[in-house]
Amino acid sequence: MTRYIEIYEDVRKKIVSGVYAYNTKLPSKRVTAENYGVSVITVEHAYELLVEEGYIITREKSGYFVSYRENEYFYGNKSEQPIRKVSSFKVAEKAEEISFNIYAKTARRVLSEYGEEIKVRPDAYGCENLRMAISDYLAKNRGIEADYRRIVIGSGAEYLYGLIVRALGREKIFAIEDPSYHKILNVYEAEGVTTDKLPLVADGIDSESLWESSAEVLHVTPYRSFPTGVTASAAKKSEYIKWSRKRNGIIIEDDFESEFSESRKPEETLYSRDDSGRVIYVNTFSRTIGSFMRTAYMVIPERLEEQFRDKIGFYSCTVPALEQYILAELIENGDFVRHINRVRRKRRENHNDKM
Questions:
Q1: Share of the chain residues as helix, strand and coil, in percent rounded to the nearest 5
Q2: Which residue from 20, 38, 70, 67 is spatially nearest to 242, judged by alpha carbons?
Q3: Residue 32, Cβ neighbours under 10 Å: how many?
Q4: pLDDT mean over 90-108
């Protein structure tokens, strides 16, 4: 692990555990560098990550102060106004799609190596080799430990939303961000469930609206919710997890585009923070590979595994085996991660050029 990531993790744990309390000043970069035996630049990188994720803030000529806090209830955000205007946030552009040459070369290799095997009907949850590749990728790159047997492949995130409704039950109330990607509401309305629209504020869903809602399922996009571009702060992510525990609720984490974060480290997911099995993680390759790749996946928490198998285990996988084999190969040979890293470097460079 890179040294600045180690420092980030250590300071973050101290903040969350209360060693560094809310609004207290952190040791200076020079003092911290001496304590860890590293350069000031290394500490600066660690502190920058903590600022990005909302754990600390900088005050001009004063230093770094803790901005993260956990309250029993998170009321008191009335000073923050709901976001009504659509921001200039844009989704991944076509130029950020994986190289066609890489995709074509991989497709030819799969056809040559697997031959007739690609004609075999996939398992209900998808081809085992792709689910194992995703499991390995999530563990190494996203901090998500997921048994491949709890990964479900489907033809797009919208299709998976429908499966989640059928598994959890149409009688439940689903809360969504307001505003949010219009297809989320479209799918839930088509499935016949009641939805509760919760207004977004600067750091995520308005706290009072969240706790006053009677929803049992919460659909959130913690990283750059579309179309507003709002990113949930570290404290807000903790609030979502706390809400799920106190309300015996389920969270659908829609990890929209987070792999393309400009940050030096992968975005922290709700799934990786949850220790009670209440988060269903959803992601799609249409953002990371390209819009032509209509393949998504979800990770089911262990506590819901049996329920999902009973309710949706009989559905046939909707993604052709060839597409799944190609994806598995892209992940296993490293092309997928190399592509993501290239895009992230490009975005960081563009971001720095604008500053």
A1: 50, 15, 40
A2: 70
A3: 21
A4: 80
Tell me the pLDDT of the chain averaged across its residues.
Answer: 89
State which amino acid sits at residue 320.
P
Nearest to 26 by CA among 9, 45, 52, 47: 47
Who wins on pLDDT, 267 or 163?
163
Other C-beta atoms within 10 Å of 171: how many? 9
Q: What backbone phi and psi angles, to 5 degrees, belong to 175?
A: -95, 140
Look at the block and give the residue holding tokens 């506590």: 303
What is the Cα–Cα distance from 281 to 252, expressed in whole angstroms? 6
Domains with residue ranges and CATH for the chain: 3-66 (1.10.10.10), 100-343 (3.40.640.10)
Percent of the chain clearing pLDDT 90 (strictly above): 72
Residues 207/77, Cβ–Cβ less than 8 Å = yes
Give the span between the Cα atoms of 186 and 121, in whole angstroms.
Answer: 30
Scanning the structure block, which residue is given the tokens 């998170």? 74
Pure H helices in the chain:
3-17, 29-36, 40-52, 100-114, 128-141, 157-168, 182-190, 207-212, 234-246, 270-273, 285-288, 305-312, 321-332, 335-354
If one compares 266 and 161, the residue with the highest pLDDT of the two is 161
Q: What is the mean pLDDT of residues 318-323?
A: 95
Q: What are phi and psi of 335, to 5 degrees?
A: -60, -35
Opening angle at CA 46, ends 204 and 355, nearest 5: 70
Helices 100-114 + 335-354 axis angle, to 10: 170
Residue 123 scores a pLDDT above 70: yes
Nearest to 205 by CA among 157, 244, 151: 244
**DSSP bridge partners of 280:** 252
Work out the average pLDDT over 20-45.
92
292 vs 270, more confident: 270
